[in-house]
C-alpha cells in the first residue's frame, strides 16, 4: 500500500532475513534445504490466479528434528533405567539373603525351644500317668489307705498345679475327691469318663480339653485312666491339673515379650500358654495348622499371624504323639528381623541416595537434550509460522517498499485476487493496482510508515481491469536492514453493497415505523431511549426528551398514578414479554387508554440483551365500550332483581288475595244455594260477579308474569271452534245487553270446526278483545268475524282501510260482517289452517300515538279514559303476547271517533272429527250441588290453617256426604294420619309449624302412606308452584279459589287411580 514511482524500475527481490534465514540454515543442516531462499523469498515457481505462481514450499523439518531428539532422549533414559535396575536388583538380592539367614537361625532356635518345652511337658505328663496307674490299680473300695496315698501323691506336685484327685465309679458318680467337703456328683457325661467307659479294651492315658470343674468350679485339664476289675470296667481315676499352673511352667523358659509358648491337644484345643493363658481356654487353634494333620511330622516350623492376636511369628512345633499333645514356640517376626531390617534399611537408603544422584544426572542430560530439541523445533515453528501467516494465509498479503512503491513479496491469495502470477506481481508497483494518483499514494504510504494511520480504504484494479473496493491494514516491519510495509488487503466490495442495501432497508424500516398508527419506543439495555415514532409521542403527550427522561404521566386502570418504576419502559427489560393497560391524562380531562405490549429483543451472540421494544395502541373506545357493557350488565342484573322482586310480590299478592277470595266465593256459592228473595239473590249475584272480576284481574297479572318469565306453555289438543266462540259469546252478550249494544258472532263458510291448538288461550284472546271493545263502545255494536286468512293476511300489521270506516250502530257492524267476502282456504305447507279473527266496534277510536303504545303493559288510551272506563291496562299486552306465543300476530286499525278493528291471525292443526269434543254447554250461575254416590263412605283429611277456608272446604265435602277431619298444620296432619285411615288428604302449602311440602315428604316415608292420594289445595298459583307440589310427592294440584266441581273431579281421579292400582296389584 505504498505510492509507486513510475520513473524508476523496481529493485530485485531481497531474500528474507531473520527468522527465514535461521530456518534456511536449519533446513540445510538437516539435508532438506531449498537453496538460500526463505518462505518469503522472491524466487519460486510460476503461477497465476489459481495459485501455481506461489513459491515452492520447503519440506518441514520439525518431524525429523523431533524424531532424532526423541530417539536420543529415549536411549539415555533406557540406559539409565537399566543401570539403575541392575543396582537395585543387587541390593534387593542381598536383603533377601540376609532375611533368609535370619529366619533360618530363628527357626533353629525355635525348634530347640519347642523340643525343650516338649521335654518338660513329657516329664510332667509321665509323672501324672504314673500316679494314675498307681491309683487305678488300688481304687478306694479295695484300698482303705486310698485317701492317704492320694494325698501323698498330691503333695508331690508343685504348689498350685494339682486341683484334685478323684475317682468316678462305674455308674458315673463321683466316688472320691481329694477336695475337702466334696459331695457325690454325677460325671457320667464328661468326656474323660465316657472315653474309658465306651472302650473296654484300651487302657491308656486320656487328657481332656480344659473344662470348668463341677466340684472345683475352676478351669482344669483332666488326666484319667480306666479302673479294671476282673477284666471289666469299674470306674475312672482322675487327676485334675490347673491350666494356669501349666501356663506358668511354660513361662519359666523366659521368652521375650511378643514370643509365645503353647501346649495344646492334637485336635487344636489350647491347654496352656505362657501369656494370656486364661483367654485361650476353651478355644482352638486355626484348623489349617500343619501340625494338626494326622500324618504331620514330629516337628516343623512355619511363619504366620497368630490365631488370636494376629501378630506375625515364626512358629516351631514338636508333637508328643504318645499323649496326643503338641508344643509350639512362636518367635515375634518383627523382633527376630529387627536387626536385619536395620541393615536392610541402611542398604536401601544408600541405594536411594545413589538413585537420586543418578536420576539428577540423567535428568540433567535429558533436560539439556529437551531444550535443544525445543530450540530446534521453535526455529522450525517460526519458519512454519511465517509460511502460515504469509504464504498459506487465505488473506491477501503484500510486502511493499514505501520508498519506491515496489511490491517486494506477495502470497498466493494476492496472486489469485489480482490475477497475476507470482513473478508478474513482483514486477509491479503499488501504483499499478491503486486507482489513486501517485501523490496521494505517496502520502498514504508515508502515513502508514510513520504509523499515523493503519487502516485505509482504496479501490484496486485487477489484471482483468475489474475495480474492487478494498480495506487495507498496513504497518512497518524491518527486513534485511530496511523498512517495508506489511499490508493485509480485504475485498469489501460485496460488503459495501450489503451495507448500502442495509442502509436503504433501515431507512424503509424507520419510515414504516414512523408512519404506524401504533406508538413504538425502542430502549437500549441501559434503559436509554434509542428511537420513537410520531404516534408514540402523540399518544404519550411527550417529546423525545421527555420520553428519554420518563417525564410523562401514566395511570393504572383505576386512575391512580403509576410509580416511575412501574412504567412499562422500566419493566420491559426484566421480562420476555408483557401486556398491560395504562392511561394517559389528557389536558381537557379524562384519559387516553393505551394497550402496551413489550418484547425483549433477542440476545446477541455473547448473550447480551440489546434492549426492548414497546408498542402502544389507543384502546380508549374499547374501554368505553367495556364500561358501557358493564353498565348494561349492571342494568340487566338490576332488571332481573326487579323481575324477581315483582314475581315474589305477585306470588305473595296472589296467595294473600286467593286465600280470602276462596272463602268469599265459597260462602257466596253456599248462600246462593239457600232460599233467597229476589233482592238478596241480586246482591249475592253482584258480589259473585265482583269477586270473579277481581280473580280475572289476578289471573291476568299471573299470565303476564308467566309470559315475561318465558314459562308460558301453549297446549296442542283437539277442540271445537264453535265451543270457543260460544263461550266468548256467553260472556260478552250479557254485558252488551246491559249497555244496549248489538253483538254478532259469525264463522264464515269453509272454516273448520275441529281444530288442534290451545282452546283456552284462544278463548282468552277473543274474550279480552271483545271485552275491551264493549268497554269503549257507547252506541252501535260489537262484532266478531272468523274466516280463512288470505295470503295478504300473513304477517300483516293492519286491516283494510274500509274496516276503519265502520261507524255507527250495531246494525252497521253487522252489515259489514255480512258483506265481508269469504277468502279462499288459507293453509300452509305443514297441513295447517290459518284463520283471521276480526273484532270490530263502533266506539271512540284512537289516534296513531295511542295505537303505538296500546299494547304496552299498564297503558290505555289516555288518563281520562282510564278514570272513565276503569281497567288495569294489561289486557291488550297479555293478548298480544298470547297471540305471538301461539305463533300468530295481532294488528289494529283505528281513527278517532271512527271505532277500531283488532285483527288476529293464527294457524291451527286440523283435528279428526271423532276426536273433536262437542261444544260445552254455556256456563250457568252457581247451581245446587248434586250428591255423588261415588263419595259414599269416603273419609278425607283436610289440612288447612285458615278458619274460613276450613269452613268452605268442609261444606263442599259435607254436601257430598264425605266424612272429614281438620288439621291446622302439617305436624298435626302427620299425627292424625298415624292414628286413623283416610282415603285422601287435601293439603294446603303455606302453614305454620310445618308446611305442606315437608308434611308430604314425611308421610311418603311411611310405606303405609306411600300410595295415599295427596291433593294440593293452595293459594300459590305462580309459575312453578304446581311443579313444586308434584316434586314434593303430591298427586294433584288445585289453585284457590276452588270450585266444588273442580274439587270433586280431582277426588274422583285419585280414587279411581287407587282402585286401579289395587286391581293391578291384586292381579
UniProtKB/TrEMBL annotation:
Residue stretches making up the PAC domain: 452-504
Domain PAS: 382-439
TM region(s), chain numbering: 69-89, 351-370
Molecular-function annotations in GO: phosphorelay sensor kinase activity
A Pfam family this chain is assigned to: HisKA
Gene3D superfamilies hit by this protein: 1.10.287.130, 3.40.50.2300, Histidine kinase-like ATPase, C-terminal domain, PAS domain
InterPro entries hit by this protein: CheY-like_superfamily, HATPase_C_sf, HATPase_dom, His_kinase_dom, HisK_dim/P_dom, HisK_dim/P_sf, PAS, PAS-assoc_C
UniProt-annotated stretches for the region Disordered: 1-59
EC number(s) from the headed UniProt entry: 2.7.13.3
Catalyzed reactions per annotation: ATP + protein L-histidine = ADP + protein N-phospho-L-histidine
Boundaries of every Histidine kinase domain copy: 652-910
The Response regulatory domain, residue ranges: 939-1055
Biased composition (Gly residues): 30-51
Listed PANTHER family: HISTIDINE KINASE (PTHR45339:SF3), HYBRID SIGNAL TRANSDUCTION HISTIDINE KINASE J (PTHR45339)
Name of the protein in question: histidine kinase
Source species of the chain: Derxia gummosa DSM 723
